[in-house]
Amino acid sequence: MLPLHAPIRAGVARLGPKSARVTAKEQPDQAVEGFLALAAARLAPRTVEAYRRDLAHLTAWLGRSPTEATADDLAAYVAQLRADGLAPTTVARRLAAIRSFFRHQVLLGVRADNPAANVELPKRRRTLPRTLSPSEVERLLDAAAGTTPRHLRDRALGELLYGAGLRVSEAVALDRQSIDLENRLVRCLGKGSKERVVPIGREAAEALRRYLSRGRPYLDRRHRQELFLNAHGGPLTRAGVFLILRRLADKAGLEPERIHPHLLRHSFATHLLEGGADLRAVQEMLGHADLATTELYTHVSDRRRRELYFQAHPHARRLKTTRQARK
């Protein structure tokens, strides 16, 4: 005899992940809601929302409360995610949410074990961050040249993303008091609400000074505290930043679909390391908890140095030409 939840699971599989999430959202699990309520006190809102989506998907797939899940259930769930073609990073993120939920259950005494503890993670392929070259960055920022309030804002935004390596969420959350132009510093809140202070260069400081004196006052129709405002006087959003950068990329003759805020952060880190900056210092400026994350940028620098060598060194070029001639 099939278990009671088998028909539900089959129905969810036919509906697909999106329908499954809607079904789970209509009937929230009380154990999950309790976990999310406590998580909201210590985690960033986006992290809590990601946990909510991931646990809702698991609940829909199971067809019952996740508190009843076994290690075999979770192993089968992860296997299904992989079979559906989800990226290893996505599978790992979902499993991290599930493990956190069950740790909470163990702490409450609801369960004696964490069934997700020994579920094997898919192997994550270590991909190198994509970056812009220094000349491409200059073309992108120069595309914001102009004297209108929006031009001044766009230039200040681009200079800050590249000059301080901020995440887009950190940039849009800044207020006017976050910037110290005299000492060329920016104070931001990173992941986990961790505060850090990052130096900014002369170009970024000058762009911000122009924006604050001749741009922002004309955008500030609602007396907002946020540093970056949209054309209607409201706070600039993440989506707004993406659109601004893609518009600048199109004007600069770059590929708009390739340009996004994090690309400037990647370029910030890579160019610092190529210039001889200390790895630990770059880690602190980026706000990385793990040095291994920052070390990825050293591989980017090494790869770029190799590429430049083979492009520029006479013997490297001659060897390449000789091999082509032999073919």
Q: Overview of this structure, please?
A:
The chain has 327 residues and is mostly helical. The chain has helices at residues 6-15, 17-26, 30-39, 45-62, 71-83, 88-108, 134-142, 149-164, 168-173, 202-214, 216-219, 238-252, 261-274, 279-286, 291-312, 314-326; strands at residues 179-180, 185-189, 195-199. It has a 3-stranded antiparallel β-sheet with strand order 1-2-3. The radius of gyration is 24 Å and the shape is globular.
Any key phrases for this structure?
single chain; 327 residues; mainly alpha
Structural class: mainly alpha
End-to-end CA span: 67 Å
How would the global form be characterised? globular
- Largest pleated sheet: 3 strands, antiparallel
Report the total helices: 16
- Mean of residue pLDDT? 83
Low-confidence stretches: 1-25, 318-323
Q: What series of H and E elements makes up the topology?
A: HHHHHHHHHEEEHHHHHHH
Tally the beta strands: 3
State Rg: 24 Å
How much helical structure, as a percent, in the residues?
55-70%
Strand content: under 5%
**Arrangement of strands in the largest sheet:** 1-2-3
